[in-house]
Design brief:
Helix 2 links the parallel strand 1 and strand 2 (61-64). This protein is an alpha+beta fold. It has one domain (2-64). It is built from two helices and two strands; from the N terminus they run αβαβ. The longest helix is centred in the N-terminal third of the chain and has 20 residues, at 2-21. The protein has helices spanning 2-21, 38-49; strands at 24-27, 61-64. The model has no long low-confidence stretch (mean pLDDT 74).
Amino acid sequence: MHSVANSLALAAVVSTAAAAIQGFNYGNTFTTGQVKSQSDFEAEFKAAQGLDGTNGAFNSARLYTMIVRIIK
């Protein structure tokens, strides 16, 4: 029973990792430093879903941010 649970857990992790490959990372700001709004994220997400040849396969998004400590 223990090995079945381990196998199911491993399958879930592998499945999640495989799904994560088909997506994009979205930053929280534009290159100008302006903060993005919900409509900006929606537009980027819809653009990714509509890429030619993907059949809407890009159906996940990851928001990334970075915390920087500036030492003066």
